[in-house]
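Exercise: predict the fold of this chain.
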Amino acid sequence: MTGFALYRFPHEQQVTLVEQTAGEPEELLSCADLSGRQGFVVAPFAISSEHPIVLIRPDSVEVFADASLCHLPADWEFEASKPDVWSLQTGRLEPSNPCFEACVASGSTSSSETYGEDIPNAERRAYGEDFRRFHEQLKTGRFRKLVLSRCAEKPRLGHVGGNVGEDFGGGCDVLTLFQHACQMYPRLFVALTYTSKSGLWLTATPEILLEGEGSRWHTIALAGTMRLEGEQLQGEGEQVTWSTKNIQEQRYVATYIMECLKHFSDDIREEGPRTVRAANLVHLRSDFSFSLLYNIGVGELLQALHPTPAVCGLPKGESFRFILNNEHTPRLYYSGFQGPLNFSPVAPHPSSVAPHPSSVVPHPSSLTRLYVSLRCMQITPDRYRLYAGGGLLSDSDEEQEWQETVAKQETMRTLLAHKPHRPYEPHEPHEPYEPHKPYEPHRPH
């Protein structure tokens, strides 16, 4: 086994395990190269030879009735990734990191030494530096929107060994973390992915990048964030009143996506925005259904969409370069995208599923369902890295934006705080369970 993806779609119980059993996953340096290919895609925010798109070939596919029955590849062993150029634990940025020069100028190349603080305080100070640098450019009018992300580190209590059942910090092994995510977040796409190039990541994301098959496709514009509290947690955010900042931020993303799609389709329908819930947060979402013009590959469309302004900014190209040169935290595979490309295993009928996995053969040239890698966590030999970000406008407030990232990181942090050894309970989710909503290519869902 050289790479795997264990995943579950929103509002579904079924879990799928995709394994590549021979050879290394293919590495690609352009989204356009994904046209005509098949597999499970794991793409970074910024594609490079160091952090390429990796495509896990579906040599083996197993389908499970729910997460309580799933397992990881029998021969999987976690291999330590190469040392990063950045570490919050030491607070150091190495010169090979693109934002090194900018951080030298601000005196922040060694946050823990400079501040003499513990890591959480250093994280807050580093975020403040980044916010001021980003916000200054927004106030001058250089950018309409910039997305600022950060990473919080949590030391692992255990260690990753060759056996998947070994302690994984707080009494939870990696499979248990995935199962708890499925239990707690029925609205989200949940995935556990591993390749030696990309590393080990756990994701629970609400954002669709692209899904569909043939000529019928669907994407969304998801932006704006509010936290649900008290009685609001009993609903779907129906009583939320959106601020002008949140409405404007989401409109920027929706407008960009519409203009982008016009180059690939002459049949586009937009619906929304509407309020949607993701864990204990709500967002504004617009849906776009469209037909892909003849002779246009999915890779070409992905090349234009990724990264969307929801994780980057506007103007897109300039904001992308600014983020790479000025953001304190290298994003790696956070705010990239992932999911099955041009294949769909046959789902067993629920009434006929035995308590054993079903081995299936993926269908070529079939369904594609790709999600933006938000609310995710990188798992390394000695720590968890929890990623989150938020869109900044000229009138953004630093403390409010910081608290938004704290709220988003709770999606992963809650899993790490979950009581160890609690059995998986598929019918008692943390969020109210909603019935399965299948993909309908002719209208947004």
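Check your answer against the key: The first strand starts at residue 3 and ends at 8.
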